[in-house]
Amino acid sequence: MWHGMAVTVGGSVLAFGRNHKGQLGTGDKDNRWQPVTISLAWDDTDPDYFRAAQVACGMSHSMVLVAHKGRLTACTTGGVLPAQLPHALCCPQTSRWC
Q1: Which of these, 17, 61, 80, 97, has the minimum number of CB atoms within 10 Å of its CB?
Q2: Model confidence pLDDT, tens digit, residues 3-46
Q3: Residue 34: CA atoms inside 13 Å, Cβ hemisphere, count?
Q4: 64: closest CA among 17, 98, 35, 93?
Q5: How confident is the model over 46-64, as pLDDT tens digits?
Q6: Please, which residues bridge with residue 52 across strands?
Q7: CA distance 13 to 57
């Protein structure tokens, strides 16, 4: 099994599976065989103001489209290569994503 993600009705992200490249967005490389909720917040704003619109999983990376303050931002994690998603499209460096 590789890894998977799901968006809940409320806009949260659940992640599970292998995490050898940090592709789950948990901030570590521990595998998760039960779904865990992933934090999408990257600033001091209440985490409830960050909502996932869509997720996509590659072999060892993930991408989440995050809705925050009226904008959609592409955030990636894991073994992402620049050709897969240009860094300029990523969320701020203060996030564990990107």
Answers
A1: 17
A2: 999 999 999 999 999 999 889 989 899 999 999 999 888 777 77
A3: 0
A4: 98
A5: 777 889 999 999 888 898 9
A6: 66
A7: 12
CA pair distance 86, 27, nearest whole angstrom: 21
Instruction: Give the 3-state secondary structure of residue 47.
Output: helix
| Residue 3 Rama label (left phi>0; alpha psi -120 to 50; beta) | beta
Helices (H) and strands (E) in the chain, counts: 0, 6
Could you tell me which of 68, 71, 75 has the C-alpha nearest to residue 90?
75
Say how many Å lie between the first and final Cα of the chain, rounded.
Answer: 24
- By three-state DSSP, how is residue 89 classified? helix
Please give the Cα distance from 92 to 2 (Å, whole number): 27
Report whether pLDDT(88) > 50: no
Task: Return the pLDDT at 74.
Answer: 85
